[in-house]
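To the team - pyridoxal-5'-phosphate complex, inputs and output below.
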Amino acid sequence: MKFETKAIRIQTDRSQHREHSTPIFPTSSFLFNDAEQMRQVFSGEEKGNIYSRFTNPSLREFEQKIIALEGVEEALATASGMAAVFASFLALLKSGDHIIASRAVFGSTYQVLSQNLQDLGIECTFVDPLYPDTWEDALTERTKMLYLETPSNPGLVIIDLEKAAAFCRKHNLLFNVDNCFATPYLQNPAAFGADIITHSATKYIDGQGRVLGGVVAGKKELLEKVYQFIRRTGASLSPFNAWVLSKSLETLALRMDRHCSNAHDLAKWLEKQPKVLKVNYPFLASHPQQAIAKKQMRLGGGIVTFEIAGGLSAGSAFLDRLKMLSLTANLGDSRSIASHPASTTHLRVPEAERFKIGITDGLIRISTGLEHIDDIIMDIKQALEA
Ligand SMILES: *Cc1c(COP(=O)(O)O)cnc(C)c1O
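Output:
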């Protein structure tokens, strides 16, 4: 089956009513016929659901789809993207271990790596994602994992997954990739050698700004440890959110095609505007890693960033003049969203650090929605011209 068909046709449990669509199983626990069956399920001799912090059929349908769409052995749903990222670290690393991470990672991930893991005795060294040849300098005898995000949020840095996987094989490291921006439709890191893949399902997988959710996917033997961690610590997803996400996957391919064509058209239009100093989009010829992006991604993604002339004040003024695009913290929504990282998400990041990851004063991030491209461009045009 092709991607689109798997996203629709993979299903697990149905009730006695044989519903055509995906049912929801909003229950905290599951019944047993007798004490003996209860003993067998608890001991693992018989397969079965016990308690929804452990397993739930609504979660399993979502997980089964992710397994098929990412081309991995196992997947586990989590309460948010950060729950997935955190579980992937804590389940597989211990005090004394060392992790090498790309400097261009999501804000909360950066804080987890530099503060929470540090507090637990897991050291992190941040490396420049664009120069894999320099990563060896960060290695210690305690290095256990390489962690990266491609395309990165919000810098749209593209990292060569094949090269990164070769680095991990050579040095016997676990290779952990945040695949949130690409989604399983645009990029399958496991096909290039990733051992663990995380997603914030809150973004494109939901795609309509309704629920938080996340998923950890990858090799069975590693995911067994992640499962124990999630089950014990309570990072599990709610059945309702799993149902929303399972239904959302049915339209992921269609939506991503439109997100990407809108973003690509917007990027090409922005390149011609005099008040725009620079446009970043992975599939533009001007993107420094376009060739790598084309090698590992089906399409260029739904995010475009650009540098507006006039720096910080021009960036805020641009946001204030938008009439249709939403000013909100989410991305990957059906509604187009604009943000100005330097005055919001990265306000507290020192200037030098911000610049290193491409977040300049006038940088605007557009999460291109599913509205008609003419209306998206019209709004941005009037805000640029005012
Ligand atoms: C949003 C995001 C996360 C965190 O996901 P939540 O669902 O908000 O917890 C992680 N990585 C990337 C790249 C993101 O954009």
